[in-house]
Amino acid sequence: MIKPIRWTIAKKVGGTVFILLSIIFSLLIHSLIALTEIEAELNEIAAIDVPLTEYANEIEIAQLEQRILMDEFIHKKLAKKEHTKKEEQEIIQWQVRMNEQFELAIKTSKSAVNTASSSEFKDILATLNTLKKEHEIVNTLFNQLINGENISVNLDAVIKQDENFDRLAIDLIHGIEQITKRKANIVLEHEHQFAIISYSLGIVGAIIGISLATLIIISIKASINKISYNINLVSSAIKSNKDIPVGQVEKVKSTDEFGELSHNLTNMINEVSSDIDKREKVSKELNELATKDHLTQCFNRFKWDESLKLEVARSLNSHTPLSLIFLDIDHFKRINDTYGHDVGDNTLIDVVNIAQQNIRQLDTLYRTGGEEFSILLPNTKLTDAQFLSERIRKSIAEFDFKTVGHITISLGVTLFKGKEDTELAFSKRADTALYQAKESGRNKVSTILEL
User: Fold this and answer.
1) Cβ(446)–Cβ(434) under 8 Å?
2) How many domains in the chain?
3) Most CB contacts within 10 A, which of 22, 110, 127, 389?
4) Domain that holds residue 368
5) What does the pLDDT look like over 142-153, one tens digit per residue?
6) What parts of the sequence cross the membrane (predicted)?
7) Residues 410, 437: contact at Cβ < 8 Å?
């Protein structure tokens, strides 16, 4: 079985950084491609379009200069002036210069045929070749004109051919300008697209980065809150010494370090709860050993001393009555001597069970001596305590004990008298009442309010 990927905090942050770096890398690649395309367009314009435009302009300028000179030459020729050598030489110089520009322009156009705009440059090249031929025709006619052959015919042909050349030269310049303009627009379009994509990638990267960072922060904060809550549960449990309910433990559903920490904390909570349960169980057992009689399982003398103080204080604070019963099994030593201590122990257990069945839930039975017991009766009037004592005495007397048969008990009853009374005096009166019951024949209930 393939284990799920453990998304640690480092992996989450690293993943976010990787995504952002990928976007930045994509932006850089796009920028390089766009800049390469823009550079190619600009290089083509610089290497071809600009020189061609210059050559075309030079050709046009040379053609204009040549026309001016030809006009002067023709004017002198028609006026039958012989001093035309200067014009003839200058015209020839411009013809040479124009031929040079044609050669450069044609060479540049041929190199441009292999570019992206090859179809346009094919037309430019064809136009240049046509212009060159037209220029050669003009030169031929002009040479004939210089030699004096058919002056009127050649003059008209030169003028007509020159006008045709001029028209083609202007078309050439416009064609080159259109190509350059279109390329400039393409460059601007590339720049516009580059800007849009760059901004878009930047915005997308920012949104993704902020979103992922926010999710990571929210996840970490939620995990920290749950772990803090669980830590507070542990602290409260340790202080109160109570176990932690499983339903209250917050679980961190994450595979990062917080999830691992939460898992370890949950294990610790389980161990703490288990330790608290064990400690409570041991504490309860120790408390029972310390406060309960090991034979009869009613409270012992240590618990009696503690409870007497508490019930006296409660009676004083709440102004409620508190009664006390002392009881003793009559002739218990005779039972031990006659039947043995095992029978005596069983008899004690039975007496305690009968007494427990007759007292109320809020009343408490204590073994204060070998066969001596006391019963604290909170919120109980003296008459009610006397009635309860008589019921216990009668239940014991009527019970058929195993082995020993019937036995009796004697009981002493008293009432706590409030602020004028003390724990010692309160207990002393009950003990005196018990002694009085025994002295008067046993199997009796005796009551004393004053000593």
Assistant:
1) yes
2) 2
3) 389
4) 292-447
5) 777 666 655 555
6) 12-33, 196-218
7) yes
44 vs 108: CA distance, rounded Å: 11
Q: Do 195 and 261 belong to one domain?
A: yes
Question: In this structure, what token pair is assigned to residue 220?
Answer: 């970490």
Residue 83 scores a pLDDT above 60 = no
- 311 and 274 within one domain: no
Compute the distance between CA of residue 51 and CA of residue 45 in angstroms, rounded to an integer: 9
Q: Map residue 403 onto helix, strand or coil.
A: coil
Query: Checking DSSP bridges between strand 409-415 and strand 364-367, what pairing results, if any?
Result: unpaired
Interval 235-288: pLDDT, tens: 666 666 666 665 566 666 665 655 666 666 666 666 666 655 666 665 666 666
Rounded Cα distance, 254 and 451, in Å: 76
99 and 170 share one domain = yes
The sheet with strand 445-447 has its strands ordered as: 364-367, 372-378, 322-329, 409-415, 445-447
Interval 375-423: pLDDT, tens = 999 999 999 999 999 999 999 999 999 999 999 999 999 999 999 999 9
Strand partners, 64: none
Catalytic-role residue among 60, 120, 311, 371 = 371
Backbone phi, psi, residue 407, to 5°:
-135, 170
Active site (annotated) includes residue 371? yes
How high is the pLDDT of residue 190?
67
Residues 205 and 252 in one domain: yes
pLDDT tens-digit map of 92-142: 787 788 788 878 877 877 777 766 556 677 777 777 787 777 777 777 777
pLDDT at 411: 97
Asked if 437 contacts 444 with a C-beta cutoff of 8 angstroms, the reply is yes
Residue 3's SS3 state is coil
Exposed e or buried b per residue across 335-365, where buried means at least 16 C-beta atoms within 10 angstroms of its C-beta? bbeeeeeebbebbbebbbebbeebbeeebbb
Domain closes at, from 274, 291, 308: 291
In the DSSP assignment, the letter for residue 299 is: B
Residue type, 369: G
Which CATH number fits the domain that encloses residue 412? 3.30.70.270
Long-range contacts for 113-122 (Cβ within 8 Å, ≥24 apart)? 115/44, 115/48, 116/44, 117/44, 117/179, 117/183, 120/175, 120/179, 121/48, 121/179
- Which tokens sit at 426? 């309160």
Question: Do 363 and 265 belong to one domain?
Answer: no
- 331 φ, ψ (degrees, to nearest 5): 55, 45
Q: How far apart are CA 360 and CA 410, in angstroms?
A: 20
DSSP string, 217-228: HHHHHHHHHHHH
